[in-house]
Design a protein that fits this description.
- The protein starts with a helix and ends with a strand.
- It has one domain.
- The relative contact order is 0.13.
- The protein has 193 residues and is mainly alpha-helical.
- It contains 3 helices and 2 strands.
- Helix 1 packs antiparallel against helix 2 and helix 1 runs antiparallel to helix 3.
- A hairpin with a 5-residue loop joins strand 1 and strand 2.
- The protein has a two-stranded antiparallel ribbon.
């Protein structure tokens, strides 16, 4: 029986060690997957920001072309109508003011988009750190000394039970050297080492 206790203790230790290795392997895989997910999320956010900036750039270019065309038409129309001086200058200034206001609004929109992307990236970073913390839980590793003590205790218990069975069966128990005999509540001898 003592041999069975030793074998059982060894099997428990090996099983616990294997389980700890599997959990560690799972954590490494989950952490790598989370890093990849975060990188893809960052890439997606950066691509969206680049597309928005490109769209604003195209729109600014169109506004500039349309404004130049409108100014040219206004000059020609004023010249054909015989209008000159301050009124033509006021009309031109009004076109340029409208263009400047529209450009400022587009650039402010682009700036706000950049801020939103920055905040989104920061939030994604916080979220991935929280996921990494959730993945990296402590791994319960088997303790060699504890396993040996537990196995030794089980083996001694099995040895004592064997002596008790042998004594009850009428056999002559072999008393370990250095043990102290006592009698339990049933009157059966007990030996402690």
């Amino acid at each position: 029986m003592a041999g069975l206790a030793v074998a059982s203790g060894g099997a428990q230790y090996l099983g616990a060690r294997q389980q700890a290795k599997q959990q560690e392997r799972y954590q490494r895989q989950a952490q790598a997957a989370e890093r990849l997910r975060f990188q893809q999320e960052q890439t997606s956010m950066r691509m969206r920001q680049a597309q928005e900036q490109e769209a604003v750039g195209r729109e600014l270019e169109q506004v500039s072309r349309k404004s130049q065309a409108a100014l040219a038409r206004a000059r020609v129309s004023a010249g054909e109508a015989g209008v000159a001086g301050a009124s033509v200058q006021a009309l031109m200034s009004d076109y340029m003011r409208q263009e400047a206001g529209y450009r400022a609004a587009l650039l402010r929109q682009q700036e706000m988009g950049g801020l939103a992307t920055g905040l989104g990236l920061e939030q994604a970073g916080f979220a991935t750190r929280q996921r990494q913390i959730g993945i990296a839980q402590p791994i319960s590793r088997p303790n060699v000394l504890g396993s040996l003590l537990q196995t030794g205790t089980a083996a001694l218990g099995a040895y004592g039970a064997g002596l008790q069975i042998q004594s009850m069966a009428g056999g002559v128990p072999s008393i370990p050297t250095g043990s102290v005999p006592t009698v339990d509540a049933r009157g059966l001898p007990q030996y402690t080492i």
